[in-house]
Amino acid sequence: MKTFAHTLFALLLSAGTLLAQESAPARKQFPYSNKFTLGGGISQLLLGGFNVQAEYTTNRMVFDYSHGFNIRLSGQSASPVAQDQNLSEKLTSTLGIGIGYRLTPGLDLRFEPKLHYYDVYYNGQPESVGNKLTSYRTVTLGLGAYYRYYPFRKQPNGLSGILIMPSVRFWPNVWSSLDDNKYTYLNRTTNRTETYKAASQGFPGTGGLLANVTIGYTFGMNKK
Q: For residue 124, what pLDDT band results from cuts at 50, 70 and 90?
């Protein structure tokens, strides 16, 4: 975790330097600059949870913070190891920051350190302390590509701030709190000694690839 903290500090220091540099008058002004956006992802809702994402765009930089809660991964949405061992995974909390650079007014690329908290249960059992198999944390360091689309941007009213933002991200695990990244136990449904490995983010078996669509609102879009 010290490495994670040092990485965050270095990122924030670099972002501050870039932010100071971009104040130079020679830079062309992008639309949607110096705006605050608040939104949430659709995929988290589909998985029984929710998340809140807040971000601020300058002329070229993007800074965001996101926090997801109670995302349930079972059946085909669980990790391959969990599926094989008749387990379900619950992301009780997933949070982190993003620091990005705007390539165009709509498209930006972000570096994203994230922290994820997991609870693991036997599939189909109530989520209670007695049924919990284990809990652990993972850290991911990855990249994301985001595209901003404002369907009502030409409206001279509050509708102009409505945002649809699809994204594709790759968040590989760089650390987990499990010893040697695994947990060995006697599975009471298979009656075998099994080894569970820390789950990766996103689509099962991809090692961290995920996609999402954020629905949000950008404040001050109809102001000159």
A: confident
